[in-house]
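In this section we walk through a basic example: taking a raw amino acid sequence and producing a predicted 3D structure, encoded as discrete structure tokens. The instruction is simple. Fold the sequence below.
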Amino acid sequence: MDKDALKKSVCEHIDCNRDGIVGIGRLIAKIPEMGFKEFKTAELVKNEFRLLGLDFTDGIAVTGVTARAKGRKSLAAVAVMGELDAVLCASHPDADPKTGVVHACGHNAQIAAMLGAAVGLAGSGAMAGLDGDAVFMAVPGEEYVELEYRKGLRDKGGIAHLSGKQEFLKLGVFDDVDMAMMVHARGETERPGIFTGGASTGFISKAVRFVGKAAHASAPHEGINALTAANNALALINSVRETFRNEDRIVIHPIITKGGELINVVPADVRMEMFIRGVDIGAVLSASEKVDRAVRAGAYAVGAEVTITDMPGYLPLEQDGIMDGIFAANAAGLLGSGGVRPGGDMTGSTDAGDLSLVIPVIHPNTGGFRGRLHGADFGVADGDAAYIVPAKVMAMTVVDLLYNGAEKALEVKNNFRPKFTKAEYLEMLRGMDSVKMYKDL
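The resulting token sequence is shown next.
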């Protein structure tokens, strides 16, 4: 069967299973779970792999699941990824009433599209005409949140790193994969559309603890107010924003996670968390140093102690040009040239950025969604655009990559110049982990 006939067969098989694929996305939306807690969603994924006759490996990084569809030869391997986790947004009308968790970032659509691609490739028999393997991955913990929980999980040996793809890299899940792709929802884009080639920011995460001295609130001179130290630090962080270059797109967003114990006690234990984002990791690290100075100065002003814990966040995304072009051509074949737009930079971050500096990756955005990402108005507006179009485009892209001796996949592989080897990347992550305590400045 020639390549065009394989693509047609794949897409027809996805169309025949359209209701089931859309149903998967809707079902996942009803069982939202936070990162490294996605047990129900993982079970659903495993059941779909069983129905396709695919052997799978589960329990990877706690909840991750992978399955490999073998080609007639295994000259290259292409991963098709989806993310399992949801976010907290208690004001969303579909939020779990007990937990406030909801799929307000569209990861339910990612998993449905990934499984839809598996339906098309494995269910149609197309893999028998390809010279490489397709590896389907349900990855946990992309949203970099609930850091105390994740650090506790790390302390117990459950994970070594705080995100799913970081952990997959460490565990060797990508050791026998040559390249990877996934899609992500684009907010406030209700009509069908594909946005290719965009970049993302990288970030570093900080946890800050100010320690003062408790006293009766009516005699504040007898204590050391840790909340005042934190407020000082926030003001000083704001004062250094003018030192950032516009082109580095530095964004700092702190929150106070603990502001004190009782209203009539001088706060002696105050805690903050923050991300420092930017499009250049060097600029992020420079901004991080400035933030440290602001935090230390805020504590010093009132005589408080401060501990700053740095944790590696994500690296900026760099999408592979060859894969991106193949994906865009397949999307244009479905939607017309007007349905495909280059660019679409993300202001946020993704751990696909980390992966993209080790192996070739694409991470296009897809339409079919109303409202703002992570907002109370976010949701699927067009089921075919959100679930079916990306499933078809990813499956057709796999066909292009693995057809005729996996010619295109080998071209991608041979032209890719990684920023890091796996060992270098993991060493860098370890180097970004630090705890600094300042008692007397």
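Looking at the output, two observations stand out. The chain has two domains: 3-198+315-424, 202-313. Residues 3-198+315-424 form a domain with the Aminopeptidase fold (CATH 3.40.630.10). In the next section we compare this with other chains.
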